[in-house]
Design brief:
Length: 149
């Protein structure tokens, strides 16, 4: 007599082992990895932007008269510091730890505010960075860990 091996259940066939949750978990993990990569790239661009403004504050010009006006050297330092924080938080996102997501959300929020105020100096670039920051925030808040405690 031969006994047939039991057929694998739906829980055993999915990569996450949780029925239908495997696909959603892998896509949100991919979004989180993309967000981490975008944060690192964005942070590096902000660092280079800050260095350019610190080295020669005549690199950027203002378009029009706005309520908020700042010295471009000060803006260079702001972009440099925020850029370094964004790079660090971006590397932290690769761990998918809750603390990294909280830090990333705070740092990206600061970067969004900085880019909004930076609009008079680099309008096109600021809009690109604001949209990128909003995607990063969406993916950070949308991520659901598949780990059980």
């Amino acid at each position: 007599m031969t006994s047939a091996a039991p057929s694998p259940s739906a829980d055993d066939r999915t990569p996450g082992g949780s029925g239908s949750g495997g696909t959603e978990d892998s896509s949100t993990a991919g979004d989180l990895a993309l967000s981490g990569t975008l944060m690192v790239v964005y942070g590096l661009f902000a660092v280079f932007q800050g260095i350019a403004a610190i080295a020669n504050d005549e690199v950027y010009t203002s378009f029009g008269d706005y309520v908020f006006t700042f010295d471009l050297t000060a803006w260079g330092w702001i972009h440099l510091v925020v850029g370094v924080l964004v790079v660090a938080a971006g590397f932290g996102l690769f761990t998918a730890e809750p603390w990294a997501r909280v830090v990333a959300a705070i740092v990206v929020g600061l970067a969004l505010i900085a880019n909004f105020i930076w609009l008079p100096y680099q309008p096109f670039w600021s809009i690109i960075m604001i949209v990128t920051g909003l995607f990063v925030l969406w993916s950070v808040f949308n991520y659901r860990s598949s780990r059980t405690v």
